[in-house]
Amino acid sequence: MKRVGGIVAFLFVMSIVRSQALDFRPEWAFGANAGITLSRINFLPRIPQKLLLQESGGLTARYISERNCGILVELNFALRGWKEEQDTVSHFNHYSRSLSYIDLPVLTHFYLDVGKWARIMLNVGPQISYNIGEKVLEKDIVRPTNINPRYYDEDYKVQHKFDYGIGGGLGLEVRTEIGIFILEGRYYFGLSDVFNNTRADIFQNSHNQVISVKMSYLTGWKRK
What we know:
The chain has one helix spanning 2-23; strands at residues 27-44, 49-50, 52-66, 69-88, 91-114, 118-140, 162-176, 179-190, 205-222. By secondary structure, it is mainly β. It has an 8-stranded antiparallel barrel with strand order 1-3-4-5-6-7-8-9. A hairpin with a 2-residue loop joins strand 4 (69-88) and strand 5. It is elongated.
């Protein structure tokens, strides 16, 4: 009897999965996103830092081609940078710089339905970016004469404007009659350097690292 019950349960589950697969239709969705960034730069030699809080926002397009899987593309304006606080020979230095980027993440989108109106989602994939500007936010430096002055000079600017890396995030999607609302947390790790990295330069590594939290609103339709 247990074996018969197990077979019946298995057939019941398979019938649900099959019916859901038959009901699936590809879905397009378009909208906008906005949120905050918490950024730092992975310097070598290491620089003590706190996360720099700034903003981001942009446009979103998503195409779900298979059940539980699709592709997500964004075009965003995002602020990154770093906030330095360190004790240099008994003096406490404050320095922060904001870097402005145009971001283009192209992410594989996975989701799992949780009830009728909600989904848990995972986005992961590559991202390319381009630096379009920078600004010193805070500069309160007490520097001994033996410290290389180039690091804080105004003309020491971003030397590699093109940036690329890997991003990924988890989120919750709520589907309503007026549209799709998404709350997502994402992490980006840059694989390229912001500054030159030869032995004669100040830094050997200078990779972007960004935590972002964003809200997105999408509207879409399913292919008949």
